[in-house]
Structure formats: structure tokens, C-alpha cells
Design a protein that fits this description.
268 residues; Quinone Oxidoreductase, Chain A, domain 1; Rossmann fold; 2 domains; six-stranded parallel β-sheet; three-stranded antiparallel β-sheet; 9 helices
């Protein structure tokens, strides 16, 4: 956003009250409490959201909780679906203390998987264990996670050495879903070891493409209902006014927060 031209409207996640329903009668009704996803412009007092990117909220789910779901929640949900049936399978989640990572841990465990969370800082281990990891590995390179492998599915958001090592830990037919490079975009890996594993694959994931085939409205509805049922709990690290977006964004970029940051639109 700092490098964008004047007039750029940032933001992907939103939650609030529907001011006007869709003209074609689809989607939630006027006055409904909703959560939504946009490719840009979500951080605004008013936003036009396609009905296939909008879901009505259960009464017990707050706007704060809902606002954590679009990017982090949908990323975790749709990335996990690349592994198919996870019952009894081993799943590795790297960057496990982040927003998508914590949702990934909870959703994988709810699906019946044996879940291993990987973090690079010892102080984040407790948060990851609370989120549902059966095992927590603290390692800068990720190599130590191999002790608990091989893995049917890896949710990978770190890149660099962590991605390279994760590819060597896949089980036959396993999938590594890459959706971030918080450490480095440059990766080295043993291609021979990968193809000798048998049917192992690296899947490049970007949410803006995924929602073309799997509408955000469906995923958001499922996630919101899981919060209402007590099966999913967002970890909110900070709640503040949207006027503080610059400071919050800087800390997020510097990995100063675990979990999610919630920005509230101040009343006029």
C-alpha cells in the first residue's frame, strides 16, 4: 500500500452490517450482519461486495471474530482441502503462530489429522500448542520437523530453507501447499528425492485464484458456523482504530504480532 498510487484503497477482510441488499435478490438481506472478502478496498466505511464473497453471521459471532476469517481462515480451509480426507493423516503447518497457521492447526485437528506446528521462535511455541498442535517444533530451518514425518500434507508459508526441507518430508502421494514466503522466496530442494517419493506434489496457492472455483461465501459461512459452535477460535492479538493501520501494518510485516489484528472503523 505504501508504494501504491494515490487513491488506492487497501484491505481484503471486512465484517459489518449490510446497508443495501443485492438488486437481484441474491445474498443476505438488508440489515444482516455479514463477513466478506474483497481483492481490495475492504478497509472502508462502505464497500460493495459481490454476494459470492459474502456470508451472513450467526448471532453469537462478533464482528471482531468474523473479520479475522476472510484471508487467513479461507487460506487455511481451502489449502487443507488440497489434502483430501485428513482423518488419521499427518499434517505439518509451518509459520504456525501466524493467522493462517493457527486456523490451519485448528481445522486440521478438527478434521482428524495428527498435527505438527513449526515455529522459528521459542516464545511462540505455547500459542501453537494451545491452537491444537499435537507436536510443536521450534527450528529456523524446519529440518527438525522431519522427526515427526513423513507428512500427507504440508501447509507452507515461510519459503526458503523451510520449504526446501518440507518437500523432503512428504509421504508418497503427499502435497505441500505453498502460500507464502515470509522468510525467503528463494528455495533450494532435492528434486530427485521429491520425484522418488512417488506422486508427491508442490501446489502453488493464492486465495484470489482459489475463490474463482470455490466461492468465498461458502467457506466464510462454514468458518463462521464453526466459531458459533465453539469448534474454531480466532486468536486476536490487537484491536484498535483503523486510523492506526500504518503502525499495525508495520508490526505485522516485522512479525511483531502472532494471530490477527482487528481494525475498527470509528463512528463518524
Amino acid at each position: 500500500a505504501e508504494a501504491s498510487e494515490a487513491g488506492f484503497r487497501p484491505g481484503w477482510d471486512l465484517a459489518g452490517t449490510l446497508e443495501r441488499a443485492a438488486a437481484d435478490g441474491s445474498g443476505p438481506k438488508e440489515g444482516s450482519r455479514v463477513v466478506g472478502f474483497l481483492p481490495s478496498g475492504a478497509w472502508a466505511e462502505l464497500a460493495a461486495v459481490p454476494t459470492n464473497a459474502l456470508a451472513e453471521l450467526p448471532e453469537s459471532v462478533s464482528f471482531d471474530e468474523a473479520s479475522t476469517l476472510p484471508v487467513a481462515g479461507l487460506t487455511a480451509l481451502y489449502a487443507l482441502e488440497e489434502g483430501g480426507n485428513l482423518l488419521g493423516r499427518s499434517v505439518l503447518v509451518t509459520g504456525a503462530s501466524g493467522g493462517a497457521g493457527q486456523f490451519g492447526l485448528q481445522l486440521a485437528r478438527a478434521a482428524g489429522a495428527r498435527v505438527v506446528g513449526l515455529v522459528r521462535r521459542e516464545e511462540h511455541a505455547g500459542i501453537v500448542q494451545e491452537a491444537g498442535a499435537h507436536e510443536v517444533v521450534v527450528d529456523e530451518s524446519g529440518a527438525a520437523a522431519g522427526e515427526h514425518g513423513p507428512y500427507h500434507l504440508v501447509l507452507e508459508s515461510v519459503g526458503g530453507d523451510v520449504l526446501g526441507n518440507a518437500l523432503s518430508m512428504l509421504a508418497s502421494g503427499g502435497t505441500c501447499v505453498s502460500f507464502g514466503t515470509s522468510a525467503s522466496a528463494e528455495v533450494q530442494f532435492d528434486a530427485r528425492a521429491l520425484y522418488l517419493t512417488g506422486s508427491a506434489r508442490l501446489y502453488g496457492f493464492i486465495l484470489f485464484h482459489e475463490v474463482l472455483a470455490r466461492p468465498a461465501s461458502d467457506g466464510l459461512d462454514r468458518l463462521a458456523r464453526m466459531i458459533a459452535d465453539g469448534r474454531l477460535k480466532p486468536h486476536i492479538e490487537v484491536e484498535t482504530s483503523w486510523t492506526e493501520v500504518g503502525k499495525v501494518a508495520a508490526r505485522l510485516i516485522d512479525r511483531g504480532y502472532t494471530g490477527k489484528a482487528v481494525l475498527r472503523v470509528d463512528p463518524a
